[in-house]
């Protein structure tokens, strides 16, 4: 069981950077793979990035590869998403999610717990 709270969203100009954080409450954070998803108005929830329990393996959507970096600090019960070279099409609500029982990290339906989301807006 884990509860997630995102922070770090905001308004930024194209080409700028933001760092999102997701703080988890619970004693078994390291037992969960973690993912970031985003959803823009009128669009489906979209995979962004994921990280395995150990933090050794990471995965990215093609649209953000080379620009975004996911990381985790199990001692702090926190997962991060560093976003660089932001584009207007990155504008969305960003959610962090935790997976315990699933195995496929690209599908939001495989995750067990979700945060409330944080808004990221990138202006032209």
Structural descriptors:
mainly beta, 124 residues, single chain, 49% strand
Biggest β-sheet strands, sense, barrel? 7 strands, mixed
Query: What does the oligomeric state look like here?
Result: single chain
Q: Which percent range fits the helix content? A: under 10%
What is the percentage of strand-forming residues?
over 45%
- Radius of gyration over all CA atoms, rounded: 13 Å
The tally of helices reads 0
Q: Class by helix and strand content?
A: mainly beta
Question: How would you describe this protein?
Answer:
This protein is mostly beta strands and 124 residues long. Helix content is 0%, strand content 49%. The strands form two sheets. Strands 2, 4, 5, 6, 9, 10 and 11 form a seven-stranded mixed β-sheet that branches. It is globular, with a radius of gyration of 13 Å. The mean pLDDT is 95.
Task: Please outline the helices and strands.
Blueprint: E1 3-7, E2 10-13, E3 18-25, E4 33-39, E5 46-51, E6 58-60, E7 68-73, E8 78-83, E9 92-99, E10 113-114, E11 118-123
Parallel strand pairs: 2-11
Antiparallel strand pairs: 1-3, 3-8, 4-5, 4-9, 5-6, 7-8, 9-10, 9-11
In short:
This protein has no helices and eleven strands.
């Amino acid at each position: 069981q884990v509860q997630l709270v995102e922070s770090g969203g905001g308004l930024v100009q194209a080409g700028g950077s933001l760092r999102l954080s997701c703080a988890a409450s619970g004693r078994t954070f390291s037992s969960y793979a973690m993912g970031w998803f985003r959803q823009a108005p009128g669009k489906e929830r979209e995979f962004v990035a994921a990280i395995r329990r150990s933090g050794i393996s990471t995965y990215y959507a093609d649209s953000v590869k080379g620009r975004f970096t996911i990381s985790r600090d199990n001692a702090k019960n926190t997962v991060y998403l560093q976003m660089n070279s932001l584009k207007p099409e990155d504008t969305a609500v960003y959610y962090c999610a935790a997976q315990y029982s699933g195995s496929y990290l690209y599908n939001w339906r495989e995750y067990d717990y979700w945060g409330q989301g944080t808004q990221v807006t990138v202006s032209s």
